[in-house]
Amino acid sequence: MSSPDLLAPVLRRIAAAPTNSVVLIDGPSGAGKSTLADAVRRDWPTTRAPSLVRLDDIYPGWQGLQAAITHLRTQVLVPRSLGLPAAWQRFDWATEQPAEWTSVDRDRPLIVEGCGSLFAGAEALSDVRVWLDADDALRKHRALTRDGELFRAHWDQWQSDWAEYCLREVPQSRATIRLKAR
Q1: Terminus of the chain with fewer CB atoms < 10 Å: N or C?
Q2: pLDDT tens sequence across 135-175
Q3: pLDDT tens, 39-74?
Q4: Which helix (H) or strand (E) holds 100?
């Protein structure tokens, strides 16, 4: 599938969703979630531009998948669904410390992309849920090209944590759209 083939069904689903919708994009590392999220944001089908939250900015280190899921649920999606102030805290990968908080405007649509965004309970907190997959060899090549040797040392641990998440949460079953990148 080319990029327009991936983007079109997502934009159609968003156009049919509430004006202030929440879009979650999940899938394994290297599948193309960030690229798809950027395209969705750029081509958003309504006049109100969405906010974008990337879980890569939230994971507290290489073993932070579950912590980021909890942070996303408790600090962003649940408060936003209740009409309360929502925010996320960036993790500074260089210092390996929590950094600044960023508010999430509850009056704008929201895109969240990253491994772990389709956790159990995400259905009640979102309007459009995308599962994006790709072949394992392609994913690994993309991820290591993007993140270099730093990620190579952590690939096996990340993949193990990802596999546990998939077994526990079955995220692809929560998707309203399933796509496969080529």
Answers
A1: C
A2: 877 776 776 677 666 666 677 888 899 999 999 999 999 99
A3: 999 999 988 899 999 999 999 988 999 999 999 999
A4: strand 97-104
Q: List C-alpha distances in Å: 152 to 46, 120, 141, 149.
A: 39, 29, 10, 5
Q: Is 129 exposed, middle or buried (0-12, 13-18, 19+ CB in 10 A)?
A: buried
How far apart are the C-alpha atoms of 64 and 115, rounded to whole Å? 11
Backbone angles phi and psi of 105, in degrees to 5: -70, 115
* Residue 85 pLDDT: 95
Tell me: the pLDDT tens digits for 2-32? 466 899 999 999 999 998 999 999 999 888 8
Region of residue 15 (left: phi > 0; alpha: psi -120 to 50; beta: else):
alpha
- What architecture (CATH level 2) is domain 3-180? 3-Layer(aba) Sandwich (3.40)
Where are the domains positioned within the chain?
3-180
CB atoms < 10 A from the CB of 110, how many?
22
Which helix (H) or strand (E) segment is 92 a member of? strand 86-92
